[in-house]
Amino acid sequence: MGRPDFSGRWEFNPSQSSLQIPAPDSTTFVIDHNEPRFHLTRTHVFGGNSDTFSIELTTDGTPVEVNHAGLSISASLQWDGMTLVFDSTLDRNGERATNTVRYRLSEDDQVFLADERFKSEGLNYDNRWVFDRQ
Description:
Elements: E1 8-12, E2 26-34, E3 37-46, E4 49-58, E5 64-68, E6 71-80, E7 83-92, E8 95-105, E9 111-120, E10 124-133
């Protein structure tokens, strides 16, 4: 059995998600996954303000460095069985954090699950994000 293809447009389902942070008004993930290439564009909307972040990764764990709104991000992506693990270190003006997100699909490929663990000196949380295929 082949590994899952995460390609698609995914919309945040707040009623199925379990967040320890305030939920966004909406979140959309657009993923173009052509193994080993993985391009993700994420758009959060909070209070009518939109924030879009894009990153191009490969699923072999090769680190990528990007900057987003003053945040330096070092990220990698690799397989753990049928789950993709996104590991990142974030730095804003010397304040560091780690964020690990485990991506998987439901058996019918219609639900995208993202289990997130964020850790920093002042903030720690675990979130389960649920997205429906559009």
